[in-house]
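Usage

Read records sequentially. Each one opens with the input sequence:
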Amino acid sequence: MGCAGSREKVVGSGSETSKKIRKPKPWKHSEAITREQLTQMREEFWDTAPHYGGRREIWDALRAAAEADLTLAQAIVDGAGVIVQNPDLTVCYDERGAKYELPKYVVSEPTNLIREN
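and closes with the structure output:
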């Protein structure tokens, strides 16, 4: 038992270690890219990421969170037991300690994205 403001760690709930997710800071890609190119880069990342380690279900949760609004993303990572190191989701861990690194291009759009009409 602790102070009224302290929390007892509940194994598996995820919320005791998760930081509040926030929108990533604006960033610029090395060269201007189209939405189609950005989508292709994202698909390639998500297709290959699970092959470099970690658990498939955590990668799936991170993808769902990266593609969701902030409120839903928070619920997804909390429900999956993801430990958020960087609030923009670029560095996360699972409860076994496996590290998951997400490039900026999967969590947000670059400022120099070519807007096609």
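Summary fields computed downstream for this record:
- Helices lie at 35-48, 56-66, 70-80, 104-107.
- Residues 1-16 have pLDDT under 50 and may be disordered.
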